[in-house]
Amino acid sequence: METPSMAQQKALLQLEGITKVFETEEVETHALSDVHFAVRPGEWVSIVGPSGSGKTTLLALLGLLDTASKGTYLLDGRSVLDLSPAERALVRNQHIGFIFQSFNLIGDLSVYENVELPLTYRGMPAEERRQRVERALERVGMGHRARHMPGQLSGGQQQRVAVARAVAGDPLILLADEPTGNLDSKNGEQVMQLLAELHKGGATLIMVTHDPNQARLGTRMVSLFDGRVVQDERLR
Amino acid sequence: MDTFLQDARFALRLLRKSPAFTVAAVLTLALGIGANTAIFSVVNGVLLRPLPYKAPEQLVFIQEGTPSFPSMSVSIPNFMDWRAGQKTFTDLAAFRTGAFDLTGVDIPERLGTRLVSASLLPLLGVNPALGRNFLPEEDVLGGPPVVMLSHGFWVRRFGQDRNILGRSLTLNGVPHTVVGVLPEGFQFYTAQDIWVPLARTESRFFEQRGNHPGMYVVGRLKPGMTLEQARADLEAIGQRLQEAYPDSNSKVLPRLSMLHERLVRDLRPSLLALMAAVAFVLLIAAINVVNLLLARGTARQRELVIRASLGAGRGRLIRQMLVESALLALVGGGFGLVLALWGVDVLAASRPEGIPTTATFAVDGKVLGFTLVLSLGVGVLLGILPALRASQVSLVETLKDTGAGAARFRGRARDALVVAEVALALTLLVGAGLLTRTFVQLKGLDLGFKPENLLTLRMSAPESRFPGAESLRAFIEQSRERLGSMPGVRAATYSNGMPIIGFSDTSFRISGRPPPEKGEAPQSVMFITAPNYFEAMGIPLLEGRGFLPTDRVGSTPVIVVDEVLAKRFFPGQSALGQKINTQGDRDFEIVGVARHLLAYGPGEPEPAPFQFYLPFLQVPDEFVTQVGRSLTLAVRGDGNADALVPRVREEFKAMDPDQALSGLASMDSVVENSLGDRRFVLGLVGLFAVLALVLSTIGIYSVMSYTVALRTREMGIRMALGAREMDVVRLVVGYGVRLALMGVVIGAVAAGILTRLLDSLVQGVGTTDPLTFGGTAVVLAGVAVLASWVPARRAVKVDPAQTLRAE
Ligand SMILES: Nc1ncnc2c1ncn2[C@@H]1O[C@H](COP(=O)(O)OP(=O)(O)OP(=O)(O)O)[C@@H](O)[C@H]1O
Ligand SMILES: [Mg+2]
């Protein structure tokens, strides 16, 4: 349960009454119903729940990949639900880092170029981009692989590059959807360790996972069931 | 700029990575863009490039006309009065075509001659390459006889001898002094061997205001003057001349148009049709490439979604897709330019006579610009669909493992592209079909005479060598008899003109009927012929007789009219025994009615709709020399007419070594040439239609293959559930045919509208000819069946069990 002192601290992101309804031909699916949820800087939130409970949907909303049917979403104190697609792209680019289950590196770009991509979209000068990319790759231990193409890397290495890409732009918040779902346990552990280091360095993390052990690495665990938050537990 | 370079580099990398796709796309685009560039170079050369004269935008073409004969040449006295009275031109110049016999040399020759006023060269801003232009005092009746040589003739006949100036050439028996040589590459209407002053025209043309001797006028507008002001100026003079000379000038007014406009007037519809045809080819090519782009499939889409999730905005993604497709199109355009360079050479080599000599086909800056703009345009066109797709996909896809989100949109887009492709191909094929039908029909038309194995040649028997009418008549008749009795020759005949090659026309009226209004007299083609003309030419006589040896000076003047004249003026009765009044108020009795000839060539308009024939031997003495100055002979052999050429030359040499001959050509080739413009357009439109058919076949085939590949699973499941091979094939083919039929229907509607633009090129068949439309639809439906049948066969080869296991 939340303590009063924490509630007074300013939330980095805040969802209120978020509802997401998918309307298909025959049925309406309430993927999320009336979700209230706030994350403060430096938190590491694990989101858990059975399949179909709305975890991915929630993450998509948080990452501005999708829009809610109802409710408000404040990111860094600013309402982001009624932004135009172009403004949403800008927010994603500057404030959000994604780590995907399937890595989602672009196969035709080198490791270096993949990490550089969001910085390019930001219009950052070439020299600053170079420094940032190199620093990010060093951070995940992939500096020596900068010229490789993603196809030449193992799954774990690819995911580390993806992490580098997510953090290179110093986002407000990192979002990860089952970041180890496509990895064997050893590689998965390495990636989790990387996330732990990032968290120690001050990063704010929201991570969907099926693995209870991984979930316990976070500072807080939010359980979803049928599109509702059924438990919100502070771990540390 | 930075990101633009990144986009470009990435695009290049993609192209290098899938060479099969790149080669297919680049070749397809090269074909489309190359064909467009080649045709545009023709359009540019003919319609857009300014004439190769000084300030060509000031040059005006002037002729005369009446309400019923809008296109007449200019009478010399009228021209003189315009020139004296006009205020809107810096100057006027007149020109006509003639033929002068060059004699007193080893091989006498009949020279193509341009007769011009001395003002023409300065007006065009052209200086002779050697020597000087005609002087004003040489440009008056009775002035000293002088001649300028065309560069080609100077090279051919005198080996570029620079001492030619001052030499004397005997032309039509009169010594002419060479005063100049025209520049190389100078073109003004058809190329001629020599130029002489207009004053070398027979003097009667300077006196008879009612005579319009094939002369035309160009003028240079004073700076700031418009065509309208010039027209008002000359028409005012024309009105005054109408009042002053009601006999000759009733209803006659000058007609002005810009020179360039006038030169290209007849070509415009053909060229626009070609541009349209070739644009269709490009559209089809572009559609094929879009298909290829879409078929590159989900991998690409996933990449775009990832980019979007990393913060690439919509504009950013669209720009990236556009950079990629523009790059593809530019590479295609580059190869297309190479194709076009070759194509332009081919086009230049096969240019028909109807294209003005001033037009050159070449790849110049404007053509390069066109290619660049076209390539970029195609690039944008290609990029639109993928870009749209990029901006429509759901970003949540990144969080899922499959990229199947937009499959339905892509499928529908592909279908639409096939439909569009079929519709475009159908429209083009219908156009080509209509032109082909027209051409075949024109080729099959009865000319009214038999052109087979007929050699024609021009000769003149000038006064200088045959003083007195009798000696001239005797020489001409002797020529006919000697040629006619050569072995292997069936008949020889002569006339002052020949169908298709050239002839004169004249006005007439029916004797005993009220004369028509001045300037409204009916015009007839007139042939003054040998007695055996009808038999020798194979012109059927429908009624009465042809000419007899007894139709001579002194006997009743006779005339043979054509069926059109007979029907128009003597409907429901026989024309025989009636009289025609022509040739300066003389009466001729109609003794025969002949089949109407396609005198102007198949499919050509007939400014003089009637035709009649007069016997040469009945021409009064005072006119014989004038007729004898230009005669055309026709010799019909047993076999190929060209084989007769050396023997005919020999025969003439034996008769008179000073006799100049020219224009030796088989009538078959003359008829062929008269269809040259049409063959040129038809050949190209046909080529493009075939190209369109091939490209759209490839398009349908690749889309069907792709669709079948996507549906392999479905096919396997269907077959596992008991579908027979036939059912699967029918499913696929049915799908392809449904798309094709949709395209056919849309294409037929579009073609029905667009072929109206071909109106001026299509004859003897309606622009909605059901045979052409039906045939084309069947061809395209057949192609669609084939193009979907092949992938369908492949689909049923799949082992259903295999398909199910590949979960
Ligand atoms: N595009 C969509 N259209 C319709 N329904 C959808 C769509 N996306 C998700 N849903 C539905 O919304 C609900 C939540 O889905 P979501 O993907 O968020 O579940 P999840 O918790 O991530 O499950 P998993 O653990 O299996 O990944 C499900 O019932 C799903 O069927
Ligand atoms: Mg999920």
From TrEMBL, chain B:
Pfam families: FtsX, MacB_PCD. PANTHER family: ABC TRANSPORTER PERMEASE YTRF, MEMBRANE COMPONENT OF TRANSPORTER-RELATED. Keywords: Cell membrane, Membrane, Transmembrane, Transmembrane helix. The chain crosses the membrane at residues 21-43, 271-294, 326-347, 367-388, 416-435, 680-707, 728-751, 771-790. Coiled coil: none annotated. NCBIfam families: ADOP (TIGR03434). Residues 276-393, 687-800 form the ABC3 transporter permease C-terminal domain. This is Permease. One of its GO terms (cellular component) is plasma membrane. Belongs to the ABC-4 integral membrane protein family. It comes from the Bacteria. Residues 22-236, 422-649 form the MacB-like periplasmic core domain. It comes from Archangium violaceum Cb vi76. Its main location: membrane. GO terms for molecular function: transmembrane transporter activity. It is a multi-pass membrane protein. It is found in: Cell membrane. The keyword Cell wall biogenesis/degradation does not apply.
